[in-house]
């Protein structure tokens, strides 16, 4: 009662240094869906930080049923979208990482 089911995702994140001409400090882009199919939930983010840096990430819900789905490969495909590729082209990836994350919202976190 008063709780949602727990849900988890895999989040992949990269930090890029980009061309100063392409940098837009404070710009935030959030997406849902593509390149994932409609039966798999997930989304992405792109944040323009200070010093010509951009953080780009992709999250896939861990409830997916396709055994051939590769969150890493979907992230690579996401970065080919013209709206995202335009910022990253000519840039340099500085760091990267991945984590399992809670994805169900505040009401799905266990009470302590």
TrEMBL record:
<keyword id="KW-0408">Iron</keyword>
<dbReference type="InterPro" id="IPR049398">
    <property type="entry name" value="ETF-QO/FixC_UQ-bd"/>
</dbReference>
<keyword id="KW-0813">Transport</keyword>
<keyword id="KW-0274">FAD</keyword>
<comment type="function">
    <text>Accepts electrons from ETF and reduces ubiquinone.</text>
</comment>
<dbReference type="Pfam" id="PF21162">
    <property type="entry name" value="ETFQO_UQ-bd"/>
</dbReference>
<dbReference type="InterPro" id="IPR040156">
    <property type="entry name" value="ETF-QO"/>
</dbReference>
<keyword id="KW-0479">Metal-binding</keyword>
<dbReference type="GO" id="GO:0051539">
    <property type="term" value="F:4 iron, 4 sulfur cluster binding"/>
</dbReference>
<protein>
    <recommendedName>
        <fullName>Electron transfer flavoprotein-ubiquinone oxidoreductase</fullName>
        <ecNumber>1.5.5.1</ecNumber>
    </recommendedName>
</protein>
<keyword id="KW-0411">Iron-sulfur</keyword>
<keyword id="KW-0560">Oxidoreductase</keyword>
<dbReference type="GO" id="GO:0046872">
    <property type="term" value="F:metal ion binding"/>
</dbReference>
<feature type="domain" description="ETF-QO/FixC ubiquinone-binding">
    <location>
        <begin position="8"/>
        <end position="101"/>
    </location>
</feature>
<keyword id="KW-0249">Electron transport</keyword>
<dbReference type="GO" id="GO:0004174">
    <property type="term" value="F:electron-transferring-flavoprotein dehydrogenase activity"/>
</dbReference>
<keyword id="KW-0830">Ubiquinone</keyword>
<keyword id="KW-0285">Flavoprotein</keyword>
């Amino acid at each position: 009662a008063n709780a949602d089911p727990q849900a988890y995702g895999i989040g992949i994140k990269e930090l890029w240094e980009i061309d100063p001409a392409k940098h837009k400090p404070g710009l935030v882009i959030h997406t849902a869906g593509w390149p994932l199919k409609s039966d798999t939930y997930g989304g992405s983010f792109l944040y323009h930080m200070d010093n010509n840096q951009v953080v780009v990430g992709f999250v896939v819900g861990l409830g997916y049923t396709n055994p051939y789905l590769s969150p890493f490969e979907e992230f690579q495909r996401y970065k080919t979208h013209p709206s995202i590729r335009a910022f990253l082209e000519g840039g340099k990836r500085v760091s990267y990482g991945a984590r399992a994350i809670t994805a169900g919202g505040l009401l799905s976190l266990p009470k302590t």
